[in-house]
Specification:
By secondary structure, the protein is of the alpha+beta class. The chain has two helices and two strands. α1 links the parallel β1 and β2. It starts with 8 loop residues before the first strand and ends with a helix.
Length: 69
């Protein structure tokens, strides 16, 4: 496992479009459970993908690239 290799700190990036139950409840609960089981392990939950301010612009750009061809 990662802990066996000496890694003790992790950043978790939720790849979700919105702030639903997984982002607000399920993932934090899994992080807490993992940290309880592995006392030396630090897990930090980063902001979810959908919170990226440029996401809307990126989606529009991606669509535009496809319809312009």
């Amino acid at each position: 496992t990662c802990l066996d290799l000496g890694y003790q700190q992790f950043d978790l990036y939720p790849l979700f479009f919105n702030r639903g139950n997984h982002v607000t409840r399920d993932i934090p609960a899994q992080i807490a459970q993992t940290q309880e089981q592995h006392k030396g392990c630090v897990i930090r939950q980063l902001d979810y993908f959908g919170k990226f301010e440029q996401l809307g612009n990126s989606v529009v750009e991606h669509i535009q690239e496809q319809v312009d061809t």
